[in-house]
Automatic annotation (TrEMBL):
Its main location: cytoplasm. It comes from Mycena rosella (Pink bonnet). One of its GO terms (biological process) is mitochondrial glycyl-tRNA aminoacylation. The keyword Transmembrane helix does not apply. GO terms for molecular function: ATP binding; glycine-tRNA ligase activity; transferase activity. This is glycine--tRNA ligase. Belongs to the class-II aminoacyl-tRNA synthetase family.
């Protein structure tokens, strides 16, 4: 059995792009109309790869964790996003070139320019470019040219510190950085204006009158929250439970130039796990406690550094690095999923959000960042503890009660102050304002009520309504008494842990991590996609298109189809070697060849993509092995133990 060194030749982004384009994994949408930045169409292998990633995601999360699946609408009425805060805050900071009006995303401009200056400094010092930057260099040279200029050590340290906490800056702070460090538009050299907020949602209107504004959703999450009561009922009123949804999301990104990494329409896979705020333990935490993760915590970043550390999930939760078990559980499950579909663990880390980066209500947030040549370390999955924010804001806006009611084993007995009204006296004194006055009193907490009681004992008390009007209360209108209450039900707004996956970003990183070349200078690219996600699992290659192979081709195709294995026949009029090369580019992990020996002896050869190892055996045995390989039931080594090596000369036609 041969082994293979996939990293012998340097990663070549241009070659990968050419392969993806040639084999139509994806391409710019509306290409013959000139295309639109940030919109892409997936071709046959790209669509199958995406479908397979989603199918594994469903198996790994929805099936394995008994999640409740949803499919909610994309077009969303404006009030939903007003309540959620998206209308006010779902925005990025942009700057305009003062000369040509070009619009740039403020944080990306700072990042590109400072990284290019650091790169120039490395060149001037004669150092090799940093690993992630090596492939980015060509791109950066176009956008933000790196010229070999040596910087002061203090400046290098300052730039590194800014880059380490870039996500933590507000718009005005980014503007300050641009002034302090004389950051201009690299493509024109012109200065840029002050950062302005730009809302990323695509606005629309619902119905013919134009009176009902709406938005294309920028995430699937609101659909989960708005259906919370139904989901809770479906789950027999019990918490915790999780809902899950795969669907499209839309974001009007400011200047998307990063291929699938930053697009304006993309597929998300999102989970909302509803949990008791007083108990965020997870029943299956022990299963993941020993999983080791590479973590970049918020303290390290706030100190302007990017040093990661390896910790088990168990230790991270025990030490308070990750806020709670449920969040830790999901971080570990995200890790397992990404590895399962073929992401390189050496290019995967979890980065914690810094204080300003995280929404004010969130308790903790970790991004799975995957390294790639386009964006360096790029967030591909966000995993946040969003506390009770989402359900609370929708409950307040709709006056619907989005709570869990839990029967208590032992009733809770408590004594508290309550207002007892003389309704007649109240109505007489305040007439139409009586309701506002009672609401104002009932909104008081225990201390407020006791203060009111004291004032009434002195003769009268003043109360301010929500509208700000003041009224004088007298002891004839109400009495404040302490009473004993027994509660049999606990009512609470559950907290939400939200893992949110961008499928396109993961798919692109997977393509990069899977790509390698057999030879340095010849276009012999291979995509080593794991069988579970490979678009096609088995290539059936008859030696030629001769009719005598037809019955066997049909038989093998049918038997693979029946076993649920996605296979394709390639009987094109080209050499077997060329046919295999084409399928190496498509990431097809196995190939079976039918030749004259197959017709005579019912034997078939089996080829493994990465090693190009060939094995031979009876058709039944080869089919048995290849089905088991595709299902992940056996490894290639185990298949080799079953089938002898084939090193016969390729049969001649
Ligand atoms: N424009 C985009 N194109 C492709 N995927 C995206 C885009 N924006 C977000 N995603 C994906 O959706 C996931 C969840 O979205 P989230 O709102 O957390 O991203 P984000 O913090 O806005 O990302 P970024 O900071 O990179 O813009 C991300 O982890 C990412 O995989």
């Amino acid at each position: 059995m041969s082994t293979v060194n996939k990293t012998a030749h340097a990663f070549d982004k241009a070659r990968l792009d050419a392969l993806l384009n040639r084999r139509f994994f994806y391409a710019p949408a509306f290409e013959i109309y000139g295309g639109v930045a940030g919109l892409y169409d997936y071709g046959p292998p790209g669509s199958s790869l995406q479908a397979n990633i989603i199918s594994e995601w469903r198996r790994h999360f929805i099936v394995e964790e008994s999640m409740l699946e949803l499919d909610t609408t994309i077009m969303t009425p404006a009030p939903v996003f007003e309540s959620s805060g998206h209308v006010a805050r779902f925005a990025d900071w942009m700057v305009k070139d003062s000369g040509n009006g070009e619009v740039l995303r403020a944080d990306h401009l700072v990042k590109n320019v400072l990284e290019a200056r650091l790169e120039g400094d490395r060149e001037a010092r004669g150092a090799a470019p940093v690993a992630a930057a090596a492939d980015e260099k060509k791109k950066k040279k176009k956008q933000a040219k790196s010229t070999a200029v040596k910087l002061d050590d203090a400046v290098v340290a300052e730039y590194e510190s800014i880059l380490a906490q870039l996500d933590n800056y507000t718009g005005p702070e980014l503007g300050g950085l641009m002034r302090t460090h004389t950051i201009t538009n690299p493509s024109s050299g012109n200065p840029v204006g002050e950062p302005q907020q730009f809302n990323l949602m695509f606005a629309s209107s619902i119905g013919p009158t134009g009176q009902h504004p709406g938005f294309l959703r920028p995430e699937t999450a609101q659909g989960h929250f708005l259906n919370f009561s139904r989901l809770l009922e479906f789950n027999n009123g019990r918490v915790p439970f999780a809902s899950a949804q795969v669907g499209r999301a839309f974001r009007n990104e400011i200047s998307p130039r990063a291929g699938l990494i930053r697009v304006r329409e993309f597929t998300m896979a999102e989970i909302e796990h509803f949990v008791d705020p007083l108990d965020k333990s997870h029943p299956r935490f022990a299963e993941v406690a020993d999983v080791e993760l590479v973590l970049l915590d918020k303290y390290v970043q706030a100190a302007g550094q990017s040093t990661t550390r390896v910790m088990t999930v168990g230790a991270a939760v025990a030490d308070g690095v990750i806020a709670n078990e449920t969040l830790g559980y999901f971080v570990a499950r995200i890790y397992a999923f990404l590895l399962h579909i073929g992401i390189d663990p050496a290019r995967l880390r979890f980065r914690q959000h810094m204080a300003n980066e995280m929404a004010h209500y969130a308790a903790d947030c970790w991004d799975a960042e995957i390294q790639n040549s386009v964006g360096g370390w790029t967030e591909c999955v966000g995993c946040a503890d969003r506390a009770a924010y989402d359900l609370s804001v929708h409950a307040a806006a709709t006056k619907q009660s989005l709570v869990v009611r839990e029967a208590l084993k032992e009733p809770v007995v408590e004594e508290r102050a309550v207002a007892e009204w003389d309704k007649k006296a109240l109505g007489k004194a305040f007439k139409g304002d009586a309701g506002a006055v009672t609401s104002a009193v009932e909104a008081l907490d225990e201390a407020g009520l006791m203060r009111l009681k004291g004032e009434l004992a002195q003769g009268s008390a003043t109360i301010k309504t929500a509208a700000g009007k003041e009224f004088t209360l007298e002891p004839t209108m109400l009495a404040i008494e302490r009473k004993t209450f027994k509660t049999f039900v606990r009512e609470y707004v559950p907290n939400v842990i939200e893992p949110s996956f961008g499928v396109g970003r993961i798919l692109y990183c997977l393509l990069e991590h899977s790509f390698w070349s057999r030879e340095q200078d010849v276009d012999r690219g291979v995509l080593s996609l794991p069988a579970v996600v490979a678009p096609t699992k088995v290539l059936i290659v008859p030696l030629s298109a001769r009719a005598e192979f037809d019955p066997l081709v049909k038989e093998v195709s049918l038997r693979l189809r029946k076993a649920g294995v996605h296979a394709r026949v390639d009987d094109s009029n080209t050499s077997i070697g060329k046919r295999y090369s084409r399928n190496d580019e498509l990431g097809t992990p196995f190939g079976v060849t039918l030749d004259f020996a197959s017709v005579q002896n019912r034997t078939m050869t089996l080829r493994e993509r990465d090693t190009m190892d060939q094995r031979i055996g009876a058709i039944d045995d080869v089919l048995g092995a290849v089905v088991a390989l595709v299902q992940g039931a056996i490894t290639w080594e185990e298949a080799c133990a079953r089938l002898p090596r084939y090193d016969g000369v390729q049969a001649v036609e």
